[in-house]
TrEMBL record:
Family: Belongs to the sulfotransferase 1 family.
Disulfide bonds: 149-161
Binding residues annotated for 3'-phosphoadenylyl sulfate, in chain numbering: 41, 49, 166-170
Residue ranges of domain Sulfotransferase in the record: 29-186
E.C. numbers: 2.8.2.-
Gene Ontology MF term list: [heparan sulfate]-glucosamine 3-sulfotransferase activity
Protein name: Sulfotransferase
Organism: Perca flavescens (American yellow perch)
Assigned keywords, A-Z: Disulfide bond, Glycoprotein, Transferase
Pfam families to which the protein is assigned, alphabetical: Sulfotransfer_1
UniProt-listed InterPro entries: NST/OST, P-loop_NTPase, Sulfotransferase_dom
Length: 203
């Protein structure tokens, strides 16, 4: 990584850090003043999205329900499945809060990143102490993609949407399985709202 010069900030993006036990202590040893941005979305949709991603690489994958449930009769959720475990945001945050104060975190809503990308980017810029440069005028809604895209990315004269692996249609999951997962996540979501001081409105 190049040196950070005066007036520059260094950013690094690794989604798995948030759910990795050793990550907070290691980041703190490196620089405990680090600001941390976490993008979170409804853990049920997140789990289906995660499954969709794995399925695209491995079409022979067992069904979502067979992976999500430990036992189909009792409906007990398998928390060892990473697609389920990652959505336990309160647990992961608890681990990070042993090393970093809450003021070092910005929680970005994955849902608002789609419905109001400029609004969410405004919060990111404020959190990082940057002038608000990215605004509404940088985004447009692309009907074909079904998502907001950048009107004119830096160094390009053409609009740009995220790639094919982002915003894929999700497979249909039986509603009772989704409901079971919603019930499972509810207490963890509420704890996360309390800890973060933000209600994401997932249920
Ligand atoms: N602008 C725009 N265009 C396309 N997709 C968008 C956009 N903003 C957010 N999303 C949502 O981002 C989801 C993919 O995020 P990931 O978690 O895979 O991102 S990352 O790999 O951690 O970078 C992806 O999830 P899926 O819909 O499940 O593919 C999208 O819902």
């Amino acid at each position: 990584m190049p040196r950070t010069l005066d007036g520059q900030i260094t950013m690094e993006k690794t989604p798995s850090y948030f759910v990795t036990k050793e990550a907070p202590s290691r980041v703190c040893i490196m620089n405990c003043q680090t600001k941390l941005i976490v993008v979170v979305r409804d853990p049920v949709t997140r789990a289906v999205s995660d499954y969709t991603q794995t399925l695209s690489k491995n079409p022979g994958l067992p069904s979502f329900q067979s992976l999500a449930l430990k036992n189909s009769t009792t409906g007990v959720i398998d928390t060892t499945w990473s697609a389920v475990r990652i959505g336990l945001y309160a647990k992961h945050l608890e681990n990070w809060l042993q090393y970093f104060p809450l003021s070092h975190f910005l929680f970005v809503s994955g849902e608002r990143l789609v419905s109001d990308p400029a609004g969410e980017m405004g919060r990111v810029q404020d959190f990082l102490g940057l002038k608000r440069v990215v605004s509404d005028k940088h985004f447009y809604f692309n009907q074909t993609k079904g998502f907001p895209c950048l009107k004119k990315p830096e160094g390009s004269s053409r609009p740009r949407c995220l790639g094919k692996s982002k915003g894929r249609p999700h497979p249909q999951i039986p509603s009772e399985i989704l409901q079971r997962l919603r019930d499972f996540y509810r207490p963890f979501n509420h704890r996360f709202y309390q800890m973060s001081g933000q209600d994401f409105g997932w249920d």
